[in-house]
Amino acid sequence: MSSPTFTVGDRVRLQETPPYLKTAEPRPMLRPPQLVKPGEIGVITAAHPGGQWAVRFARGSFLFDSQQLEWVPPGVGE
């Protein structure tokens, strides 16, 4: 099964919460997973090596693997 392909600006839904969140900053920090709930919608802000994506949510920007995200069509969840 191939990894989903996203582009910067896509809206995505978090499918599963990882055991911790890694901030999408030049010097990343680990944060508690409760900051983003499964089902929450965010916007992709950057692509990172290894199939990771920086996603901006209401409580910050974090890195996620492609498999943890689901593309959200325009107009859904607004």
Count of spatially separate domains: 1
Computed Rg: 12 Å
Strand content: 35-45%
> Any idea of the CATH topology?
SH3 type barrels
What can you see in these coordinates?
This protein is an all-beta fold and 78 residues long. The chain has a single domain, classed as SH3 type barrels (Roll), CATH 2.30.30. The protein contains no helices and seven strands. It has a seven-stranded antiparallel β-sheet with strand order 3-2-6-5-4-1-7, with no helix packed on it. Strand 2 and strand 3 form a beta hairpin. The termini are far apart.
Strands, helices and their partners?
Blueprint: E1 11-14, E2 21-23, E3 30-31, E4 41-48, E5 52-57, E6 60-65, E7 69-71
Antiparallel strand pairs: 1-4, 1-7, 2-3, 2-6, 4-5, 5-6
Provide keyphrases for this structure:
78 residues, mainly beta, seven-stranded antiparallel sheet
